[in-house]
């Protein structure tokens, strides 16, 4: 395989870089409300700063799970903010460190994202749980992820569509949403804080322009066509490199979220927009159609022309969605309980 085949396609707003393999230990003792720790998990992840991974670790700590994280070194970002990805060398450096760490006092190893799965299944000591996030199953790493899943004790996917693609009997556990962090707020105040012109419509695209799987050129064409149809100023707001804490402000300042991805698992941006009652217009990828079922003023488009029609409809109506009522079932606490149940199932086998 060519150098660079290990490039990371995982979705993330906040991108940082690392100089070496990171091993970060957290424990239930660091969380005041945590009960006595009864499980110890070795987590493998491409970057420990992934917002949904950090939430996962935090909620599991509250449920009594201690965690040590080994992450892959060196995340490189291009001038346009796109994730350039790690090289084969980076993953070769990661592999022996992950395997050595597996000789520690852990109950199981959890590989988060398919590119960390080979290290999990190659270590000889611990039961293996693998979580696939989307691009690691649908993209060029799909065959490797499927092979590793067959060797794991349990595999978790984000949607029923991913379960069908993977085959077998995986657990379907979408990433949960922090409903305290993501909630509706005053749009005018949010726009003022961000310096956005209140006389314009704002369409949020919360990804790097250069990340090809998100298909930013299609988003630009859709917004240009909607601008012409409505004959009013519409700004396409590319948002990347901001903290997870700030994303709620962007969601509340916007008039719509536009998702034009070629493939997804269970996109967190859609669920977070729903939690803020921000209307969503999206391509038919991952579990988006399932998530938007019953949500007013939000649409899954059939083709490019339909994307334009749907965005025009949302911007013209200028009303909130009822997404928060629908997404409440995916609260982060429920996700933690379900993950803990998977760990118990694996250890009881």
UniProtKB/TrEMBL annotation:
The keyword Transferase applies. It comes from the Archaea. Keywords: Transferase. Residues 86-181 form the Glycosyltransferase subfamily 4-like N-terminal domain. InterPro entries: Glyco_trans_4-like_N (IPR028098). One of its GO terms (molecular function) is transferase activity. It holds the Pfam family Glyco_trans_1_4. PANTHER family: GLYCOSYLTRANSFERASE, GLYCOSYLTRANSFERASE EPSF-RELATED. This is Glycosyltransferase. It comes from Natranaeroarchaeum sulfidigenes.
């Amino acid at each position: 395989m060519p150098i660079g085949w290990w490039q990371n396609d995982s979705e993330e707003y906040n991108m940082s870089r690392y100089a070496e393999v990171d091993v970060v230990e957290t424990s239930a003792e660091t969380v005041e409300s945590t009960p006595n720790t009864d499980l110890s998990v070795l987590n493998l992840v491409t970057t420990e700063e992934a917002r949904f991974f950090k939430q996962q670790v935090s909620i599991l700590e509250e449920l009594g799970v201690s965690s040590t994280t080994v992450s892959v070194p060196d995340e490189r970002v291009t001038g346009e903010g796109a994730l350039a990805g790690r090289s084969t060398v980076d993953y070769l450096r990661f592999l022996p460190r992950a395997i050595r760490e597996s000789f520690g006092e852990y109950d199981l190893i959890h590989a988060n994202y398919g590119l960390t799965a080979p290290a999990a299944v190659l270590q000889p000591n611990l039961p293996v749980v693998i979580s696939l996030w989307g691009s690691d199953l649908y993209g060029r790493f799909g065959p490797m992820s499927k092979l590793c899943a067959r060797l794991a004790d349990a595999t978790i996917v984000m949607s029923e569509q991913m379960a069908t693609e993977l085959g077998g009997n995986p657990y379907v556990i979408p990433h949960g949403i922090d409903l305290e962090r993501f909630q509706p707020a005053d749009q005018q105040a949010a726009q003022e804080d961000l310096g956005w012109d209140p006389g314009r419509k704002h369409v949020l695209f919360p990804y790097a322009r250069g990340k090809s799987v998100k298909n930013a050129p299609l988003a630009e064409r859709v917004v240009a066509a909607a601008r012409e149809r409505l004959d009013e100023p519409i700004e396409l707001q590319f948002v990347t490199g901001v903290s997870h804490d700030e994303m709620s402000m962007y969601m509340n300042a916007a008039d719509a979220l536009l998702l034009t991805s070629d493939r997804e698992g269970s996109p967190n941006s859609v669920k977070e927009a729903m939690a803020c009652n921000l209307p969503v217009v999206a391509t038919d990828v991952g579990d988006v159609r399932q998530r938007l079922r019953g949500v007013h003023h939000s649409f899954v488009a059939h083709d490019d022309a339909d994307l334009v029609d749907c965005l025009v409809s949302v911007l013209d109506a200028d009303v909130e969605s009822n997404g928060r009522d629908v997404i409440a079932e995916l609260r982060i606490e429920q996700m933690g309980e379900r993950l803990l149940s998977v760990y118990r199932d694996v250890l009881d086998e």
